[in-house]
Amino acid sequence: MTKYFYVLVLLTVFISGDVFAQSAPKRNSSFTISYSYLGEGTSYQTPFYILKAKKKHPRIMIDAGIHGDEIAGMYACDSILQYLQLIEGTVILVPAVNIQAVMKNTRGVNIDLNQVFPGKKDGPHYEDSLAYDFMELVKELEPDVVINLHEAWTKFDEKYYERKNDMSFGQTLITNSETFSDYLINARDRMNSYIADSTKHFRIQYFPYKPNHSMDNIIEKLKIPSYTCETLRTLNLSERINYMIDVILSFLEETGIEYYYGDPKD
Ligand SMILES: [Zn+2]
Q1: DSSP-derived secondary structure for 128-142
Q2: pTM listed for this prediction
Q3: What residues have a C-beta under 5 A from ligand 1, the ion?
Q4: How far is the CA of 21 from the centre of ligand 1 (A)?
């Protein structure tokens, strides 16, 4: 785990050019960052971070690494952790949900974590218990919205989607509602306004309810809105990370969280 975060920190130093980077004031003591562990004491123990301003609401939760080889979201969380200065609200980051898969750079170790929600306390695989603990964590922290960061190998294509509707998600925001919420539409418009190349713009994609997915369980069982973002994995990593940062900050803004984003040393 130490090696992983060392690499994260190192890489982040070399990523720049964020559209949100602006003349931010120096970090001050008006907000706090704390961390704890999901699955503390287990083989799948992984850190989560809570960035909290004096005024704690609204609250957003961002998770990445449910699939261990979809890494752009994890690096984006690391940048957020370093450069976000909160004025109002709470941001919860779970950068590497399936840390065993992250360490092996693989989608899943025993089974696909995103196929076993809502999980089981004592299931046959660690993924069952991890899904269960993740649901408990969301319930306990009561975010207003949960954003899941993933990556896909194929860019969204209408024709491809018609033939194979579970294989074409690059550069999309996924909802399980056929009616798109204003919140989602506004967040999409905001992030796309930061992306000069319109071929890389995010589109909203409806994906029907799946009883074993994390997003659908958060919505159905916990009654918390949740959306999934998928960047296109064939793009280079720094570009994908910057899109993920755009996505996170756009959702923060749309949630009503006040922040600065930029290097505190500037
Ligand atoms: Zn995924």
Answers
A1: HHHHHHHHHHHHHH-
A2: 0.88
A3: 67, 70, 150
A4: 28
Report residue 228 as tokens.
């999934």
The rounded Å distance from CA 14 to ligand 1 centre is 25
**Cα-to-centroid distance, 146 and ligand 1 (Å):** 15
C-beta separation of 249 from 261 below 8 A? yes
Number of domains in the chain: 1
Say what percent of the chain tops pLDDT 90: 79
Specify the pLDDT at position 10.
39
Write the CATH number for 31.
3.40.630.10
Q: What is the pLDDT of residue 27?
A: 61
Residue 266 lies in a domain: no
Q: Tell how far the Cα of 34 is from the centroid of ligand 1, in angstroms.
A: 27
Ligand 1 centroid to Cα of residue 227, in Å, is: 13
Would you state the pLDDT for residue 15?
A: 39
Residue 226 Cα to ligand 1 midpoint, Å, equals 15
Sign of CA dihedral 176, 150, 113, 154: positive
Examine residue 38 and state whether it is found in any structural domain, yes or no. Answer: yes
Residues of the chain scoring pLDDT < 70: 1-29, 158-167, 264-266
Q: Tell me: the pLDDT tens digits for 126-142?
A: 999 999 999 999 999 99
Q: Kind of pairing, strands 172-175 and 31-38? A: unpaired
Give residue 125's domain range.
2-261
Per-residue DSSP letter, 20: T
For residue 71, the CA-to-ligand 1 centroid distance in Å is 10
